[in-house]
Amino acid sequence: MSARIIDGKAIAAGLRAEVAAGVARLKESHGITPGLAVVLVGEDPASAVYVRNKGRQTVEAGMASFEHRLDASTSQAALLDLVRRLNDDPAVNGILVQLPLPGHIDPAAVIDTIDPAKDVDGFHVVNAGRLATGLPALVPCTPVGCVILAKQVHPDLTGLEAVVVGRSNIVGKPVAQLLLAENCTVTIAHSRTRAVADVCRRADLLVAAVGRPEMIRGGWVKPGATVIDVGINRVAAGDGTARLVGDVAFDEARQVAGAITPVPGGVGPMTIACLLRNTLEATRRQHGLEAPG
Ligand code: NDP
After folding, report:
1. pTM beyond 0.90
2. Which Pfam families would you find in this protein's record (predicted)?
């Protein structure tokens, strides 16, 4: 038996089309064009690709895109000044500062300076706290993408045993919070978890957000489980080139799982689609507009 492959690329395209339709309605009914500002400090090549893709997809969704590319030597004070200006700019509804930042800048200070109402990455402590306490929040994009993909297989997640491997603030913890809100029984595993393979084997829904290439083997997967692989790891392909692999050993796991996301083409494309959704949502809230049902 081979698992159903969850096509994140197609699902993300559908979500982007929904967002574009929402943007068009907002323009037509209220004359409002959502605006997303993306700030890149330095020349990290992977970040530059992400920022370019974000800008392109923002414009394709009918929104305004504001890109700020700063030199790697930009001071923290100058970056915080820019963030404050974006907070005050009514044309900017969402602000994203691309991580990682150069070593001399404290990412926590930057995230803390972003207006929580414009924090479309959902990393501000106000949004993290709102998510944890069940209040409406801007929720981190990759975790929302994971839940949307899981719901393709289980429209109602209630009662499922969910295991999240990884406890970072940007992926593991918010995924766990979202799954808890969906009434899963949630276990969070991390580098100090004992017998992590045994913990994974309990999961009806296994979310891997570890950053270790193919760590989760086929034998760690419960037969029929749904596996959501967040990992993006670049490994040598043997012929001198590099290839992307997830945190799950895909070829093994697909023999055991009921459904699985591929890497690339699974969670990855969902992240920008959810960022656009957050930007639309943030714009509506800033204008006191309810999301249409
Ligand atoms: P972090 O490095 O911040 O967190 C990794 C987590 O994995 C930590 O909680 C760590 O535990 C845990 N971990 C590490 N080793 C083990 C182990 N041997 N057993 C169990 N747990 C372990 O990574 P991120 O959360 O930022 O990212 C995770 C992965 O997701 C990466 O591959 C990243 O590239 C990818 N990613 C993909 C995105 C996308 O758009 N698809 C977006 C963001 C990330 P501890 O806390 O104990 O150290």
Report:
1. yes
2. THF_DHG_CYH (PF00763), THF_DHG_CYH_C (PF02882)
